[in-house]
Amino acid sequence: MAEEEKIVRLALVQFESELCNVEANVAHACDMIREAGENGADMVVLPELFSTGYQLDVVGPRIAELVEPVDGPTVHALQEAAADAGSYVVAGLALEHELAGVAYNSAVVIDRAGELVGTYDKQHLWALERFYFRSGSDTPVFDTDFGRVGVLICYDLGYPEVSRMLALQGAELLACPSAWCAADMDVWHINAPARALENTVYLAAVNRYGFEEGLEMPGHTLLCNPRGAIMGEIEEEAEGVLLIDIDLGNIPQYRERSPYLRDRRPDLYDQVLLP
């Protein structure tokens, strides 16, 4: 019996941030969200730390002034843009939670009505991040009107456990806001397809574009299907949007053909937890 189609249009935004200019970055991102909505996007994904830029030699020492609460002006602006667009929004930014000034490298998930669905805090901190951010410990999956979505951020993509935990909770689509540097693009093109294939999920790896005080992020935003094949990629190293349709209705077929989740042997995996 053929599965019913569940077509979802994604707008993956390869964003060029202006370092530490939150107001300009947020205004530009909101314009891009609204334009994506006009093009029928069901979900818009923005990269890691889109509102501040990433270069931690500059952003890090200023993080206490740049970090915002989840009910702060950046999230409010994203909520308004999501409601105007009629699109879900996933966006990476620096958030504070219980303690003022204590920053997390986070992502927000906002629904079509502009309501906050939830947040995710990056679990695996890269290099200088550990000096400026606190790591997250939760691995939530978010319900949407088209399916279940999991979020991971950049360096998390290199840890199979994160994607697997999301898939085991029913995630069908993984969104990965990133600020991946040019020197490691070979790994980018290995990790993203591998995480999609081994969990039989669609995976949207959304990278920054730009040059920030010696840090080059070349983009190459891409979408992988549940076989790990790259369905679309922004080849041009510039700001842009990958507008692409996926069919979540065919995931059962992929999982029948590649039954990695079904055939797991968790009774043998104790050593995965060894320090």
For the record, what CATH class applies? Alpha Beta
Q: How would you sum up the global shape?
A: globular
Count of β-strands:
15
Count of domain modules: 1
At the fold tier of CATH, the topology name is Nitrilase/N-carbamoyl-D-aminoacid amidohydrolase
pLDDT average, as an integer?
97
Let me know the largest β-sheet: 7 strands, mixed
The CATH architecture comes to 4-Layer Sandwich
Counting DSSP H or I runs of 4 or more residues, the number of helices is 8
- The poorly predicted ranges are none
How much strand? 25-35%
Helix content: 25-40%
CATH superfamily: Carbon-nitrogen hydrolase
From the alpha carbons, calculate the radius of gyration and give it in angstroms. Answer: 18 Å
Give the SSE order as H and E letters. Answer: EHEHHEHEEEHEEHEHEEEEEEH
CA-to-CA gap between the ends?
46 Å
Q: Characterize the quaternary organization of these chains.
A: single chain
- The secondary-structure class comes to alpha/beta
Short characterization:
The protein has 275 residues and is α/β, with parallel strands linked by helices. 27% of the residues lie in helices and 28% in strands. The protein has a single domain, classed as Carbon-nitrogen hydrolase (Nitrilase/N-carbamoyl-D-aminoacid amidohydrolase, 4-Layer Sandwich).
Provide the fold topology.
Elements: E1 7-14, H1 22-38, E2 43-45, H2 56-59, H3 63-66, E3 68-69, H4 73-85, E4 88-96, E5 103-110, E6 116-121, H5 129-132, E7 141-143, E8 148-151, H6 160-168, E9 173-177, H7 185-199, E10 202-206, E11 209-212, E12 215-218, E13 222-224, E14 230-233, E15 240-247, H8 251-257
Helix pairs in contact: 1-4, 6-7
